[in-house]
UniProtKB/TrEMBL annotation:
<dbReference type="GO" id="GO:0080019">
    <property type="term" value="F:alcohol-forming very long-chain fatty acyl-CoA reductase activity"/>
</dbReference>
<feature type="domain" description="Thioester reductase (TE)">
    <location>
        <begin position="18"/>
        <end position="320"/>
    </location>
</feature>
<comment type="similarity">
    <text>Belongs to the fatty acyl-CoA reductase family.</text>
</comment>
<dbReference type="GO" id="GO:0010345">
    <property type="term" value="P:suberin biosynthetic process"/>
</dbReference>
<dbReference type="InterPro" id="IPR013120">
    <property type="entry name" value="FAR_NAD-bd"/>
</dbReference>
<keyword id="KW-0444">Lipid biosynthesis</keyword>
<dbReference type="InterPro" id="IPR036291">
    <property type="entry name" value="NAD(P)-bd_dom_sf"/>
</dbReference>
<protein>
    <recommendedName>
        <fullName>Fatty acyl-CoA reductase</fullName>
        <ecNumber>1.2.1.84</ecNumber>
    </recommendedName>
</protein>
<dbReference type="Pfam" id="PF03015">
    <property type="entry name" value="Sterile"/>
</dbReference>
<feature type="domain" description="Fatty acyl-CoA reductase C-terminal">
    <location>
        <begin position="395"/>
        <end position="493"/>
    </location>
</feature>
<keyword id="KW-0521">NADP</keyword>
<dbReference type="Pfam" id="PF07993">
    <property type="entry name" value="NAD_binding_4"/>
</dbReference>
<dbReference type="GO" id="GO:0102965">
    <property type="term" value="F:alcohol-forming long-chain fatty acyl-CoA reductase activity"/>
</dbReference>
<dbReference type="InterPro" id="IPR033640">
    <property type="entry name" value="FAR_C"/>
</dbReference>
<keyword id="KW-0560">Oxidoreductase</keyword>
<keyword id="KW-0443">Lipid metabolism</keyword>
<dbReference type="GO" id="GO:0035336">
    <property type="term" value="P:long-chain fatty-acyl-CoA metabolic process"/>
</dbReference>
């Protein structure tokens, strides 16, 4: 049964290891703990870097100096760096290396095995179009290395592994918080095995190098391999496939490690913590909003009535922190949390679209010439067939015409032809990757998360400090006044 005590008390004097420490969620997690519990004992922050100095520099540039840390800067002023260096140990490492996570300093390793009580595995690649070797090494094999590291930590209370809700592939209806068993596939194809996947990946890579392929050709071939392997077993892309594989293997190999698997849906800008609207990099749905605001998107593909499951980043982090406390010391247990909104506070695709339309109408994007971009209503194509027809009429026909004219004019228009050809290929690739999500018919049951929230409230713990109640979001207000302005400020600037 869950042991619910004060979350702030749980964090006091606690030693936590975070992998992928410069990632979007990881930084929000680190900032939150430093801000609400300055008496945390130690945060070991693992990130990729050449050496210790490079790691410090990277954490400073990519985390501490960002707006995200502004409340801490206001609180500590000139002493901020001292405070952070007392509470954190920045470690150059790499979870793809081995079960020492690429940590070279043997004294530091011994110290971590002795001291670490909570491990939060956030190191991952979230790119849908990733090379298969990169995705498999980081998302699957890396997760196994973290588990093996966890087994050596004598004080370990809990291992929190951050996965994604989309390990469900294209399932429809209510998707439950249940684990995937070893070898389970989404389309019933048998023979899924992590060792086979590793072998296929390594042999393909070896063959490509043996044939003397260019790095560019190798990258393209490895991306294709990732799509092919994922789709063979029913997953839409190598990202969600390698994340699903990781869940299977962790569940199988965990032994007595208390394991929590966290499956957030599409993560968006912060709702309130440390302040509303902080975001970094173009998240999944934002690439559309950005393209639209800049006047580059005149048509879009998707079911207007589809429920898009999104969750603000700070809610994900708050739920993570509360689950660490709730599942500490539950030897050999495994629990899965869906953190999303499609059950408790669903939002339709059209709502996001309307908010973007109104926002960019009132605050138009100013282009390079200093002119405001006037946006219109987007032509929404609600099926793959209508999209193909639209593309054929607006792009493929002109391309064919251009090809004929180009031949007549002795390749005079070759550059123009190639450019259009490249654009069409790019759009088709994006649709191929995102297509499954644009017509997604699943909703994510979040019963475990809801139970935790209710239990926390009943136990009187600090649920106001760690709010992850999706019902507290007013979507129209969030998109118009928090999220889109955040994207414009932090991503488009």
């Amino acid at each position: 049964m869950m042991q619910l005590t004060s979350v702030l008390k749980f964090l006091e004097n606690r030693t936590i290891l975070v992998t992928g420490a410069t990632g979007f969620l990881a930084k929000i997690f680190v900032e939150k703990i430093l801000r609400v519990q300055p008496n945390v004992k130690k945060l070991y922050l693992l990130l990729r870097a050449q050496d210790h100095n490079a790691a410090l520099q990277r954490f400073k540039n990519e985390a501490v100096e960002k707006d995200l840390f502004k409340l801490l800067r206001e609180k500590y002023g000139a002493n901020l760096n001292t405070f952070i260096s007392q509470r954190t140990t920045i470690i150059p490492g790499d979870i793809t290396c081995d079960e020492n996570l690429g940590v070279k300093d043997s004294n530091l390793l011994q110290e971590m095995w002795r001291e670490v009580e909570v491990i939060v595995n956030l190191a991952a690649t979230t790119n849908f179009d990733e090379r298969y070797d990169t995705a498999l090494e980081l998302n699957t094999l890396g997760a196994i290395h973290v588990l093996n590291f966890a087994k050596k930590c004598s004080k370990l209370k809990v291992l929190l592994h951050v996965s994604t809700a989309y390990v469900s592939g294209e399932k429809t209806g209510l998707i439950l918080e249940t684990p995937y068993n070893l070898g389970e596939t989404l389309n019933g194809t048998s023979g899924l095995n992590i060792h086979t996947e590793k072998k296929v990946m390594e042999e393909t890579l070896k063959q490509l190098r043996f044939e003397g392929c260019s790095e560019e050709a190798i990258t393209a071939a490895m991306k294709e391999l990732g799509l092919e392997r994922a789709r063979k077993y029913g997953w839409p892309n190598p990202y969600v496939f390698t994340k699903a594989l990781a869940e299977m293997v962790l569940g199988d190999l965990k032994e007595d490690v208390p394991l929590v698997i966290f499956r957030p849906t599409i993560v968006t800008s912060t709702f309130q913590d440390p302040f509303p609207g902080w975001v970094e990099g173009i998240r999944t749905i934002d690439s559309l909003a950005v393209g639209y605001g800049k006047g580059k998107l005149t048509c879009f593909l998707g079911d207007p009535d589809a429920i898009i499951d999104i969750i603000p980043a700070d809610m994900v982090v708050n739920a993570m922190i509360v689950t660490m406390m709730a599942h500490a010391d539950q030897r050999g247990s495994q629990i899965i949390y869906h953190v999303g909104t499609s059950v408790s506070n669903p939002i339709e695709f059209t709502c996001i679209q309307d908010c973007a339309f109104h926002y960019f109408r009132e605050h138009p994007w100013i282009d390079k010439q200093g002119k405001p971009v006037i946006v219109g209503k987007v032509n929404v194509l609600s099926s793959m067939d209508s999209f193909r027809r639209y593309m054929a009429l607006h792009y493929l026909l002109p391309l064919k015409g251009l090809e004929i004219v180009n031949t007549v004019l002795c390749q005079f228009l070759q550059a123009k032809y190639l450019e259009l050809h490249r654009k069409i290929k790019f759009v088709m690739r994006l649709i191929d990757l995102y297509g499954p999500y644009l017509f997604f018919k699943g909703i994510y049951d979040d019963m475990n998360t809801e139970k935790l929230r209710r239990a926390g409230k009943a136990a009187g713990i600090e649920m106001d400090v760690f709010n992850f109640n999706p019902k507290s979001i007013n979507w129209e207000d969030y998109f118009s006044n928090t999220h889109i302005p955040g994207v414009v400020k932090y991503v488009l600037k």
